[in-house]
Amino acid sequence: MSAPGEPGERVSAGLLLAAGSGSRLGTPKALVDFHGERLVDRGVRMLREGGCRTVVVVLGAAGTPVAGAVVVHNPRWSSGMGSSLRAGLEAVPAEAAHVVIALVDQPFVGPRAVRRLVRAAGRGASVAVATYAGERRNPVLIAREHFAEVARLATGDTGARPFLRAHAGLVVAVPCDDVADPADIDTPDDLDALRARPS
User: Fold this and answer.
1) Cβ atoms within 10 Å of 17's Cβ, excluding its own
2) Average pLDDT, rounded, for the chain
3) pLDDT tens for residues 57-83?
4) 199 three-class SS
5) Which region holds residue 104: left if phi is over 0, alpha if psi is between -120 and 50, else beta?
6) Is 6 inside a domain boundary?
7) Would residue 65 count as lying in a domain?
8) Reduced to 3 states, what is the DSSP secondary structure of residue 179?
């Protein structure tokens, strides 16, 4: 096995998309306090504890320092997730063989789901998607050889979905029902409901 930093090591990076204004929530989701921790910090911790050596955070509507991450500002954040995904992929360090893409508004997707995707890459998957009850959700792992096409197809608010549809045969489904929950925060009611659950 290669030691950290040696040639041949498959280094993982994380990419946290956190640029939106949270229009239905009334505040940028990145800054929301959730059980004593901002959602952006929770997302960075998830990716790092899940095995990502470097974490890139894409911000837009709200700028803020984020410990333990490379922060990228997307001036086109209002055009949708696609522009944030492109900005984030451009910032993934060259040594990373793949990236785990996560969303800031899913606080119960934790490190164990990320680890499963990283392990799938170690077994040869170039595209892996967390599934819940058989449905593809997040996080998503993409190998570097696909970055350019993912970025080209990411328009508006679609993110990686067009690429995943175009290359269904590459996608390895990684069941995560037992370790994560993809419930997201879009409205104040969503936030209240998830805050009422144990962390």
Assistant:
1) 26
2) 94
3) 999 999 999 999 999 999 999 999 999
4) coil
5) alpha
6) no
7) yes
8) coil
